[in-house]
Amino acid sequence: MTHAVDVNTVEWPEPVAIEGDRVLSGNPTGSTVSMHADSHSDVGMWRCTPGEFTTVRNGYSEFVHIIAGKGKLVHDDGTSYELRPGVSVHIEDGFSGRWVIDETLVKAYSVIYA
To answer: Nearest Cα to 44, choosing from 112, 107, 102, 114?
Structure first.
């Protein structure tokens, strides 16, 4: 089934705190609207408040497109990707790094499971 969601009018679920053992600074919370999910993929939008926290991709890759907000995605090797509206990033399977969110970030995402 085809779905359309308007980021300006979507009803976001109650935000959930990022797991404490992942948080490096701040008190970031996230909220996800999934438009499609099955055993091969997940497609939707994610919103997260400011803070810094670790992230690891094991068993899946992710394509993200930033809709709103500002921050960085920093790989453990030091490579940094600026995140702002209009930027798209492919996060490969095996990625390890951290999100640094300066202004509440909204991304559209597509996850593909290995």
So the answer is: 107
